[in-house]
């Protein structure tokens, strides 16, 4: 059941047996993934994954209404299709909840890539679909925990499952019967029917496990409940079974089978859904932003330099594409590492957490040892295990495979690397064929020849940024922040400020010098004569 959206996108495009794209923008800047799980049917209907979300006016509202909703960010809209038949035949009603969750985990996450874009995920379920969401999440949690213990050999699957759980922000239920709705399953022989039996022990256990999972993960839950009982068809739902374990709940005068088909954007049910999704996204402020702000507060004079470097990266991305490299060049103590950390944190929001690596080449008299540790730090930073005592050839092979297996762009910050030939031990091959397109490499070094080495490794345009000393005002703020914890005596203020100006001139805006001198003078009396000499 494919149709055309107003912008020409195909509705119901099959991605695999279980996953369909309802809407995806040409612009790859997806900001949220919203995944819809349809409800139950007595007998199988092939297009249920679209029909269940189609209004009386024949509009598939998740695809046609959400894309124009100004209060929601750019969204990737997906629909999950599964056998929800309550009556059994040769081909339908044969899957248990356990088997179904295993299949959906493979098709929607492992193969379909839900939760792998680095963007938030919102899960939406209609009646039985809400229970399917719970079963899917618990299966993923179990597999991810087992893989962590090394029982499974699939590192990639473990990473995908972990990414999925980390990306989920909230779940929305349309009339989900958490405690069951079927008084009897005598006439319903489909395996899923048992999950809907009132007070089913299997469903009760699922509810409790999911409640713990969502509390640990800080997922928010919102729901719409049906006010109209449908006792004629033996389906009836009390408010309690629909309200269970929700943060925000609203009842509407709708039947169970139509509650997820709002008549228009003005209905209270649609507005409740939109406001809930918006709240899911707003309630999870990126930790990276907080860390960046903390870093900027602790270091003065960074604002303009950070903006310049980020702007250079943006211009490289627009004009060059592929992988971009930036070398922060300057003398010792000038603040290359501090600036690099700020830029790394600023750029981090564009990259998946497991695709961001910050490593520091430690100072040592044995260069090969430092490079080996650097290589292993990168491998570990990309969440891959690295056995100890690997020889150089094995480490290079592992590192190369680590880069090539990455499915999403990488952000790599290498601090304190001085010999440009060492880059080939960090990137064993031509960089465009090693790293995913859109990756960014940031290097802090006193060696301006790094740019030429990047070019020899296939990076068409590596940018050199000269880290400048602090201006007089920033230098004074940095020095005074380290030095004056107590008030300067009135009779010494003029002389102290004269001495401050001498120190600022001597340190020439070098942050390390200002920090060291300021910290040393902090422990002395106000008479700095000997120190200045």
Automatic annotation (TrEMBL):
UniProt entry keywords in alphabetical sequence: Endoplasmic reticulum, Membrane, Mitochondrion
Residue stretches spanning the membrane: none
Start and end residues of each NB-ARC domain: 311-486
Name the record gives this protein: NB-ARC domain-containing protein
Location(s), subcellular: Endoplasmic reticulum; Membrane; Mitochondrion
Main localisation: endoplasmic reticulum
SUPFAM superfamilies, alphabetized: alpha/beta-Hydrolases (SSF53474), P-loop containing nucleoside triphosphate hydrolases (SSF52540)
Highest taxon above the source species: Eukaryota
GO CC annotation: endoplasmic reticulum; membrane; mitochondrion
